[in-house]
Structure formats: structure tokens, C-alpha cells
Amino acid sequence: MDVPLTPGFRRFSVRGLEKVKREAGIALMAMNIRKLVAKNTNYNYFITQKKRLVKIKERFSLISFVLKDLWHGPSS
Q1: Angle at CA 14, nearest 5°, toward 38 and 19?
Q2: What are all long-range contacts of 34-39, with beta carbons under 8 Å and residues at least 24 apart?
Q3: What is the per-residue burial (b if ≥16 Cβ within 10 Å, else e) of 47-63?
Q4: Is residue 20 within 8 Å of 14, Cβ to Cβ?
Q5: Which residues, 6+ apart, have CB-to-CB distance to 24 below 8 Å?
Q6: Res 76 pLDDT > 70
Q7: What is the rounded distance in angstroms from the CA atom of residue 7 to the CA atom of residue 23?
Q8: CA 30 to chain centroid
Q9: Which contacts qualify for 3-10: CB closer than 8 Å, 24 or more apart?
Q10: Using CA atoms, how far apart are residues 31 and 8, in angstroms rounded to an integer?
Q11: What is the rounded CA–CA span in Å between residue 68 and residue 39?
Q12: What is the pLDDT of residues 36-74, one digit of tens each?
């Protein structure tokens, strides 16, 4: 079984099947925590970018509204 474990984990430091299972479980939990942190970081980056695009769109629509009024003059 070839599982990419945490960096620096090359071999078990304990003896006995139960202790090895416990140590492998800890290493796998560490790997899963790293995955969750990476996923959360990417999600936060996506949300930040989306909010930034919404702000740009709002500013652009305000500017275009003002320029439209200036270009066409006041409606009478």
C-alpha cells in the first residue's frame, strides 16, 4: 500500500501491530488535517476573489450610470 503520508514519515518508530496501527492512524489524521486546511484555504481564496469581482461590477455600473447621464444630458 503506497500512501503519501506526512513529510518526513519514512518508517514506524514503534514495534507491535497495535502500536503500528495507532501510529499509522495518527499519520493519516495529520495528512487529512493538511488536506482540510488546503481545501479551506482554496475556498477562502475563491470567495475573496468572487467578492472582489462583485465590488468591481458594482463600481463599473455606477460609473457607467453617471457617464450615461453626462453623455446624454438630463432627461426633460
Answers
A1: 80
A2: 34/6
A3: eeeeeeeeeeeeeeeee
A4: yes
A5: 12
A6: no
A7: 15
A8: 18
A9: 3/28, 3/31, 4/31, 5/30, 5/31, 6/30, 6/31, 6/34
A10: 12
A11: 43
A12: 888 878 888 888 888 888 888 888 887 887 777 777 665
Helices (H), the chain: 17-72
User: Per the structure block, which three cell numbers stand in for 40?
Assistant: 479551506
| Residue in this structure with the C-alpha cell 502500536, named with its chain if needed | 19
| Alpha-carbon span 36 to 43, nearest angstrom | 10
Task: Give the residue with greater pLDDT, 17 vs 74.
Answer: 17
**Amino acid in the structure at residue 73:** G
CA–CA distance, 4 with 10 (Å, rounded to integer): 10
pLDDT attached to residue 1: 45
